[in-house]
Design goal:
The complex is a heterodimer of chains A (251) and B (195). Chain A has 251 residues and is an alpha/beta fold. Helix content of chain A is 35%, strand content 33%. Chain A is built from eight helices and 17 strands. Chain A has a five-stranded parallel sheet, sandwiched between helices. A five-stranded antiparallel sheet of chain A has the order 12-11-10-14-13. In chain A, helix 2 crosses helix 3 and helix 4 crosses helix 6. The longest helix of chain A has 21 residues. The model of chain A has no long low-confidence stretch (mean pLDDT 87). In chain B, the strands form two sheets. Chain B has a five-stranded mixed sheet, covered by helices on one side. A two-stranded antiparallel ribbon of chain B has the order 1-3. In chain B, strand 4 and strand 5 form a beta hairpin. Chain B is globular and about 50 Å long. The relative contact order of chain B is 0.13. Classes of the chains: A alpha/beta (251), B alpha+beta (195).
Amino acid sequence: MQQIVIVEDEPRSRKFLNDILLEHCEDIAVVGLAGNVAEAVQMIREKKPDLVFMDIELQTGTGFDVLEQIKGLQPAIIFTTAYDHYAIKAIKFSAVDYLLKPIDVEELKAAVAKTQNKAPQSQEQTLEMLMQNLKQLKTNDNPTITLSVADGLEFIPVKDIIRLEAAGAYTNFFLKNNRKIMVSKNLKEYESLLSDHDFMRIHNSHIINLSEVKRMLKTDGGLAVMSDDAEIIISSKKKDDFVHAMRHRHL
Amino acid sequence: MLQLNPHFIFNSLNHIQYFINNGEKAVALSYVSRFSKFMRQLTTLSNTNYCTIQEELLLIGRYLELEKIRFENKFDYSITIPRNTGADDVQIPSLILYRLVEDIVYGRVLKSLNSVFIKINFDYRQSYIFFTLEDNIPLQGQDTTTQQLNMLNNIYSDSIVATQAVVLNTDNSICGSLLEVKFDTTTIKETPVIF
């Protein structure tokens, strides 16, 4: 018999989950219900359940706060949330299960069945991975790039960069608010660094921030018009890649 | 234009699911109809830059009614609209008061450990509209509501004065907070809309 604790901040959500579990899942027992972080921690320590349904948003904190405080207990976790939370990305990455509310009964059954065949050891590892991913997500949310300039270092939020242009062995950074910074490294140094952050090298001399493209003009074989109205030539080799990337950014 | 709060929408659907599963047909039906009325008015007001204070208060009332059902026993509220204030045709920027109330519900009311009472009043005197919201939650430093008030003061610097203060008992102990948004109706229309 799989012992289950439900952590949900709204009483009705708690009861609903309890009811549909009993109605649709076999070989389970709901051994406790909790509504906030403190209650959840206490309940999980006391009951040592096999599986915890964990609401991400709790009124006194988050489900992750609960996880931090029950280390070593190794229950399987199924997250629940009403909204496609930023954390969902990290959850997906760590292959931990989650359910979006309103809950679909078939998805619930599948998620519970999956936890019944998992070794506790692997639960612990996946959760650790999840916490790491979350931390990374928080810092990656608004990454900065460090540029060394004549009189010191500049820390530039990546989202403030509109484009980069090669100038011989140097690179010019064109930023929002019409700022320009020249750095003594060549463009290639930045290509791989920025490619994970929605940047693309569309020409031998140009890397652009795809979020800052306003328009594409057909003149001269293709021009990308940036948010600062700069018109950047797209090399014929890169044109298909560029169009493809732009298509997939929009609805 | 329309900035919906996805938490509110999906949690509402969640509740409807609960009522249905629990066999509470009448509650489910009434919740759906209230939810639709609220959503319809929210959609309409989202497409306008200005609305009357009555329209705004009606939306706030519908919103609080739904949240009160959702968070049983967590809070109660009253909205007092005086008769014959002469403010029937006076326009204010749409949804700024609604957003403020929504923020207070999520940022203050739901986080409060006690049950909360919210008292909303409005008055119109000498071409000023006064919107006040009093509750029994002691102010605790800066929060998102404070930020919203600061933002209103900045964006509408020539037509809105938004303030908050603590409410004291007769023995000078703190028993709640009072928030006021004062609109100067002679200049409000000239302020550009940022939202």
